[in-house]
Amino acid sequence: MNAKKATPKEQQLNFNYIFKQWIAPLFFITVGAVIAAFALEEFLVPFTILDGGVVGISMIISQLSGLPLGALTIILNVPFMFIGYKRLGIRFLIKAIYAMVVFSSFLGVFEDMKAVTEQEILVVVFGGLLLGVGVGLILRHGGCLDGTEIVAMLLSQHTEFSVGQIVLFFNIIIYGVAGLLFGPDRALYSLLTYFITSKIIDIVENGMEQGKSVMIITDHGKDIADKIYSQLGRTCTQMEGKGMVSNGKKTVLYCVITRVEVPAIKKIINDADVSAFMTISDVSEIVGNHIKRRKSPAQKK
After folding, report:
1. For a disulfide at 276, which of 115, 129, 169, 218, Cβ 3.0-4.6 Å?
2. In terms of C-beta density within 10 A (0-12 exposed, 13-18 middle, 19 or more buried), how is residue 8 classed?
3. How far apart, in whole angstroms, are the C-alpha atoms of residue 108 and residue 101?
């Protein structure tokens, strides 16, 4: 008995799924791995400025033994990838292995090329920036170059420390060892590079679409909510409040926007109600699709 042939619509849906889940992510992981490899070999490695985590350990061993950095990175990450597979599944494992293979391959490609600059401050700034862009792209699309984060995730479940604190603790140990082996200035340069890289990773991984929660206490709730909807395409949740000093009723609006929309919502509030009180906070995670609409009513017009 012949299997039922997929309709054109089903084929399109299958292609869209494969493209979103595999083709596009693997493309960006490739770009990120190439950028990260370039940052290491053309900026950091020639000056013994270390990355953190497993890559940093690999760099120390490579400097001392002369073994290839790419091969060391893969070998030292193997046990962490197994832990990641047990926790995060086969999709994570495939993307992580792919990222590390591309990364290691291009470390070899860039190894014999001349360093971009001899100025150490430029090495730290631009090496950290490029490394952050590369690693951020990999993380954003489901890959991984370093198993330290996986261990930190497991440890954070059994301790009072966050993942970021545990990773920082690991890296301080690595940079301390680097200071003993290569001099304190190498450790300080490496630590500065780490902070630059971590900030860039946050920006690239979360993107300019990172959520911000906004709470507005106002006497003109409907007008402000209408303007937010018409100009930004965001809906607000309205709650009733009461001033403890004035004893008067207040309207409390809550909405979620992106970071690039913060100046726009400030202008809306200032134009509609200069006496309004507004707080803006970071949102660590958004579940659901209310945050983003394709087009606001104003954009449609």
Report:
1. 218
2. exposed
3. 11
Render pLDDT for 37-68 as a digit per residue (tens, 0 to 9).
Answer: 999 999 998 998 988 888 889 999 988 898 88
Of 19, 24, 225, the residue nearest 137 (C-alpha): 24
- Which residue stretches of 111-252 are H helix? 120-140, 148-156, 163-182, 184-206, 221-232
What the block records as the tokens of 222 is 């409907």
More confident site: 296 or 187: 187
* Residue ranges covered by each domain of the chain: 8-206, 211-300
Token digits for 85? 């597979």
Main-chain phi, psi angles of 113, to 5 degrees: -80, 150
**Two structure tokens written together for 273:** 């109600």
Ordered strands of the 211-218 beta sheet: 237-242, 249-258, 211-218, 277-282
